[in-house]
Design a protein that fits this description.
- This protein is α/β, with parallel strands linked by helices.
- The protein has twelve helices and nine strands.
- The strands form two sheets. It has a seven-stranded mixed beta sheet. It has a two-stranded antiparallel ribbon with strand order 8-9.
- The N terminus and C terminus are likely disordered.
Length: 279
């Protein structure tokens, strides 16, 4: 794996290296432009006003969002990459930090409407990558979206079919079929090229009325999806329940709310409200 000096030396030629690989539809950057375009469109469609970019390199994607008026915060390992990106985005908050050591305190102290990472987290092994994504998910504002684009595959078989001596031994490319189980947070995956895809995680948009008595979310199906997603996210950390047990609890709660709305709804919603509030 390149160290900081290695990334600094690569910085000036990074965009050209990516362009050649993308145009040749070859590993590792086949589909690079499609990934960035899809991430950009998803952020804009979400209505985000603030974005955190983890591993922004020369700021190609962040710059477009910056020009659209979004407040941009970024993390990158290379001081040279930061210098190149800062010149493009003078008012952006760009932080030199090795995310292999976790997230910096100034990042963890804020919440973001959107969090993006493209072609960066493959330097982490899958267990560490999943933990990083869970931490980033926790930094989303309600209704926020986390978009992770990288060298990735639908299945291990897809990855193995492309595997060659060109694969960097210090880079770890996930296959979604197994990674989603490790991640433990509801997600959607889209394959955009032979070796690139986007993982999307969304934080439920929960609206509170009369704390302690009523929890509401527009539309009953959206309410249920939001409850399930939230319960799944906190299951391991706060309840010790398996996902199957969480789903069973959610279904029972929905059933009770339907058949005993005037009797039990306050109890169920109060307990759920307390869980959400503590989280």
């Amino acid at each position: 794996m390149l160290d900081e000096k290695g990334f600094d030396l690569w910085a000036d030629g990074y965009d050209k290296t990516v362009q050649v690989s993308d145009e040749e539809n070859s590993y590792p950057f086949a589909g690079y432009k499609r990934v960035l375009a899809a991430v950009y469109e998803a952020v804009r469609e979400s209505g985000a006003a603030s974005v955190l970019d983890v591993g922004f390199v020369t700021g190609v994607l962040s710059k477009k969002l910056y020009d659209d008026g979004l407040s941009v915060t970024g993390i990158d390992f290379s001081q040279r990459m930061i210098e190149l990106a800062q010149a493009k985005m003078p008012d952006a908050k760009l932080i030199q930090h090795d995310f292999a050591n976790g997230l910096p305190a100034q990042v963890k102290a804020s919440r973001y409407d959107a969090i993006i990472s493209t072609y960066a987290l493959h330097h982490l092994q899958d267990a560490d990558k999943a933990e990083m994504l869970r931490q980033l998910f926790g930094l989303l504002a309600p209704g926020g979206v986390l978009l992770y684009g990288d060298v990735a595959f639908e299945t291990a078989a897809d990855r193995d079919a492309l595997r060659s001596d060109a694969f960097d031994a210090d880079e770890f490319y996930f296959d979604y079929a197994s990674f989603q189980k490790r991640l433990g947070v509801p997600s959607v995956y889209s394959q955009l090229s032979v070796c690139a895809g986007i993982l999307t995680l969304r934080k439920p948009r929960i609206v509170f009325f009369d704390y302690g008595e009523t929890l509401a979310r527009p539309g009953s199906m959206e309410f249920k999806e939001g409850v399930r997603a939230l319960l799944e996210h906190v299951a391991d950390d706060q309840s010790g329940l398996s996902l199957e047990e969480v789903h069973a609890f959610a279904e029972k709660m929905f059933h009770d709310m339907d058949v005993a709305r005037k009797m039990d709804i306050e109890v169920h919603q109060h307990n759920l409200m307390r869980l959400i509030y503590e989280y």
